[in-house]
Amino acid sequence: MNRHLAAALRRGEGRVVDPSTGVIDSQNLRTTESGGVRGYDTVNCINGHKRHIVTNTIGPLVRLTVLGAKSQDRDDAPALLKSVSAAYLLLRNELADGG
């Protein structure tokens, strides 16, 4: 459903339906013990989850994974980007921060 909504938004702006450029980032979230997979991020001192998110350049979500907070961007990004490139054949450029 998300893919159809994102495609409708892109069509409404006169763009090609499949994005060619995306933005990847992650966010740490504090969670309780009953929240599923969790870990401790020693850099940010957070015990919980880490969301790895890929959006297209106008904002709609392309892909999301949730892992324990101890996961590192450099280790998890390749698998996430591989799954994105399999689903969105035109998406070949990714913008990322230093993480």
Q: Report the portion of residues in β strands.
A: 35-45%
Radius of gyration: 15 Å
Write the H/E string, N to C: HEEEEHE
The stretches of 5 or more residues where confidence is low (pLDDT under 50) are none
Mean pLDDT level: 82
Number of domains: 1
Number of E strands: 5
- Largest sheet data: 5 strands, mixed
Shape field: elongated
Q: How many angstroms does the end-to-end distance come to? A: 30 Å
**Structural category:** alpha+beta
> What proportion of the residues is helical, as a percent range?
25-40%
Question: What this model shows, in words?
Answer:
This protein has 99 residues and is an alpha+beta fold. It contains two helices and five strands. It has helices spanning 2-12, 73-87; strands at 21-30, 39-41, 46-56, 61-68, 93-96. Strand 2 and strand 3 (46-56) form a beta hairpin.
Give a short synopsis of this structure.
The protein has 99 residues and is α+β, with helices and mostly antiparallel strands. It is built from two helices and five strands; from the N terminus they run H-E-E-E-E-H-E. Strands 1, 2, 3, 4 and 5 form a five-stranded mixed beta sheet that branches.
Keyword list:
99 residues, alpha+beta, five-stranded mixed beta sheet, 2 helices, 26% helix, 36% strand
Topology:
Elements: H1 2-12, E1 21-30, E2 39-41, E3 46-56, E4 61-68, H2 73-87, E5 93-96
Parallel strand pairs: 1-5
Antiparallel strand pairs: 1-3, 2-3, 3-4
InterPro entries: Transposase_11
GO molecular function: DNA binding; transposase activity
Pfam family, one: DDE_Tnp_1
